[in-house]
Amino acid sequence: MQSGLVIRGLTAGLDTKRIIDGLDLEVPDGEVHALMGPNGHGKSTLANILMGNPGYTVESGEAYLDGENLLDMEVWERARKGLFLAFQYPAEIPGVTVSKFLKRIADLRREPPKNTAAFLAELKEHFAMLDIDPALANRYLNDGFSGGEKKRMEILQMLTVQPRFAIFDETDSGLDVDALKVVAEGINHMRRPGFSALVITHYRRLLDLVKPDGVHILEKGRIVASGGFELAELLEREGYEGIRRVVADQKTREAAYEN
Ligand SMILES: Nc1ncnc2c1ncn2[C@@H]1O[C@H](COP(=O)(O)OP(=O)(O)OP(=O)(O)O)[C@@H](O)[C@H]1O
Ligand SMILES: [Mg+2]
């Protein structure tokens, strides 16, 4: 099977409510794809299900990362395989400092763990690259952080973990223009074979800087359109009505071709 993320016919949600409904999606190795869609249609739920959040139930379907079935894995196994989620609403962890937390997540994927001096040197580099105030390293994670600081912290965590597959859930929301550039640089810095990402976003601003290899539109729990950057442009120009029109036109053409 191809390397990267392959989701087929995923149907899942809460015990009382189906949220993801027959979803197909592929993100090949080395590519960064965007996932867009109206509020409340299942983007964050999909991210949570891929990460193994126990609050959701999978009814049917498959999800593979580099040919390995994610849905059979425990949450920690998925993390060890290099699945990483930058949350839409990052949690505050009082009592755990930023540097201690980063050392823990860095060691999760590195055998043997990096020695502390090497870790701190790398951390210093990342702080400079992301333009984060070094004083944050000794504060409790996200405790009292501004919205933008929390989002930069998510990027810092990604650089520390060096994930195989990263999901960014609206990491661009609430960012000033400079912070948006920092987030894009962080993602672009990771771009190489052996890294793929899914960027969940409502706007093309971040995509202008990240230049995704593919764009997918999620509506009512399934992917209704996949294409290139032009989909994000169409969405900005004409909203989801524009997307629906293009999808309907395409279906009409396909039906005419078949008849
Ligand atoms: N734990 C939960 N309990 C109750 N409802 C839930 C839960 N998780 C998801 N939902 C519902 O499932 C639907 C999809 O939510 P989800 O957060 O995935 O949307 P989204 O596409 O990420 O939206 P947004 O763009 O606003 O972030 C919503 O109606 C939401 O209220
Ligand atoms: Mg969401």
Record field, number of beta strands: 12
- In N-to-C order, the SSE pattern is EEEHEEHEEHHEHEHEHEEH
Bound molecules: adenosine-5'-triphosphate, magnesium ion
**Measured distance between first and last alpha carbons:** 34 Å
Enter the CATH topology name.
Rossmann fold
CATH homology group: P-loop containing nucleotide triphosphate hydrolases
The shape, in one word, is globular
Residue-averaged pLDDT, rounded? Answer: 93
What is the CATH architecture term? 3-Layer(aba) Sandwich
- Please write the CATH class name: Alpha Beta
How many helical stretches?
8
Q: How large is the radius of gyration?
A: 19 Å
Broad structural category: alpha/beta
Characterize the structure shown:
- The chain has 259 residues and is α/β, with parallel strands linked by helices.
- It has a single domain, classed as P-loop containing nucleotide triphosphate hydrolases (Rossmann fold).
- The protein is built from 8 helices and 12 strands.
- The chain has helices spanning 43-51, 75-81, 98-108, 116-129, 147-161, 177-190, 205-210, 229-258; strands at residues 4-14, 17-28, 32-36, 57-65, 68-69, 83-86, 93-97, 140-141, 165-169, 196-200, 214-219, 222-227.
- Strand 1 (4-14) and strand 2 form a beta hairpin.
- The radius of gyration is 19 Å and the shape is globular.
- The two termini are 34 Å apart.
- The model has no long low-confidence stretch (mean pLDDT 93).
- The structure holds adenosine-5'-triphosphate and magnesium ion.
- Adenosine-5'-triphosphate is lined by residues 14, 19, 37, 39-45, 55, 88.
